[in-house]
Amino acid sequence: MRLQEKISDHSIAPRDPHKSMLAAIRELAPEITARAAEFEAARRIPPDLVERLRSIGLFRMFVAQSQGGLEFDFPAGLEVMKALTRLDGSVGWTSIVAGVGGLFAAASRPELYQRIYRDGPDVAICGSSQPAGTAERVADGYRVKGRWPFASSCMHADWMGGFCIVTENGKPVPGPQGKPLVRAVMLPVRDWDIEDTWHAAGLKGTGSHHITLRERVVPEAYVFDIDVAPRLSGPLYQAVRQWLPLLHGVFSVGMAAGAVDELLALAHTGRQQLYATVPMRESEIFQYELGRITADLRAAQAFHEVQVAGHWRRALAGTLKDEDLMVEGSRSSAWLATTCAGIADACFALAGSSVVYDSSPLQRRLRDVRVGAQHAHAQQRLYVDVGKLALRRSA
């Protein structure tokens, strides 16, 4: 049952769905943290929890109001993602995919957007941004095939997408700056195959398997360019790519805050480490390191908040679609990935030997934040473009 069919039974208040969603997440928090080992064992978020998240509006956050969506301001949607990431890495990552899905769908052709949301706004969309497929131009559209990695949330998706290199007569079609032309394809989940490949070091509960599309002719309406002029009005839909680094930033910040939460919870148990003369929370060494860690966390939070506010101002002004802004977002995501992984490392080290067990949330937090930092939108190589921008601006 979709949200629009049972909204009267839920606590979402029409006047402020954002606050209501955050309140619903607080209610779900004990269950999410208690079931973390279950997520890892199943290598996916269980269907019943997915439906709970669907019912509070997670999949409609960035869907246009014209389709019954909430069309949150971007900072409001990030606050929801941060709250879930702070509870659990896999659930947080799933919430980010939910937001990204809504943004990518908004960049699709109008007829496809209408089709995706024709039965309501609570549609789970996932996919892979790697151009691992080909789309050969034919008379009836495109002949598409491919195999895409890292399709997080594919186990509960309603629609899935992947990026393809456009070809003609078997050869890549040149795009901007001489690079191959890339287009996205989006189809209902029934048209895809899911390969059971997600055996990973962290973010185990995200179900980030490979997805495969067997060769088929896809109508042109289902193939689109995410970089075209906005197809929907409103600041949220000014661009897609400029938002992506900030979404990875919210994951990093949420994970670091969660690691500090878990370290504090351990300290409040009164735990005393071997050879220590006092409990952890009474140790000046512990207090000193904790103070340093929380300072790093606040710096990371502040940096992300400033970057988000700057992007949102540009979106409101209609000037979000700017390559320099993309570089600025990449700078923040790369720095946050490193800094927040360092915070999780420091929490893990300070907690002592008890956190090496699978039952410890801190070891899971450390693995998850490290795997998240491997993403292309958080890689340290992004600093190359940042350096080029600094040189150009200073010339």
UniProtKB/TrEMBL annotation:
<protein>
    <submittedName>
        <fullName>Acyl-CoA dehydrogenase family protein</fullName>
    </submittedName>
</protein>
<dbReference type="InterPro" id="IPR046373">
    <property type="entry name" value="Acyl-CoA_Oxase/DH_mid-dom_sf"/>
</dbReference>
<dbReference type="InterPro" id="IPR013786">
    <property type="entry name" value="AcylCoA_DH/ox_N"/>
</dbReference>
<dbReference type="InterPro" id="IPR036250">
    <property type="entry name" value="AcylCo_DH-like_C"/>
</dbReference>
<dbReference type="InterPro" id="IPR009100">
    <property type="entry name" value="AcylCoA_DH/oxidase_NM_dom_sf"/>
</dbReference>
<dbReference type="GO" id="GO:0003995">
    <property type="term" value="F:acyl-CoA dehydrogenase activity"/>
</dbReference>
<dbReference type="Pfam" id="PF02771">
    <property type="entry name" value="Acyl-CoA_dh_N"/>
</dbReference>
<keyword id="KW-0560">Oxidoreductase</keyword>
<dbReference type="InterPro" id="IPR052904">
    <property type="entry name" value="Acyl-CoA_dehydrogenase-like"/>
</dbReference>
<dbReference type="Pfam" id="PF08028">
    <property type="entry name" value="Acyl-CoA_dh_2"/>
</dbReference>
<dbReference type="GO" id="GO:0050660">
    <property type="term" value="F:flavin adenine dinucleotide binding"/>
</dbReference>
<feature type="domain" description="Acyl-CoA dehydrogenase/oxidase N-terminal">
    <location>
        <begin position="18"/>
        <end position="97"/>
    </location>
</feature>
<feature type="domain" description="Acyl-CoA dehydrogenase C-terminal">
    <location>
        <begin position="247"/>
        <end position="379"/>
    </location>
</feature>
<dbReference type="InterPro" id="IPR013107">
    <property type="entry name" value="Acyl-CoA_DH_C"/>
</dbReference>
<dbReference type="InterPro" id="IPR037069">
    <property type="entry name" value="AcylCoA_DH/ox_N_sf"/>
</dbReference>
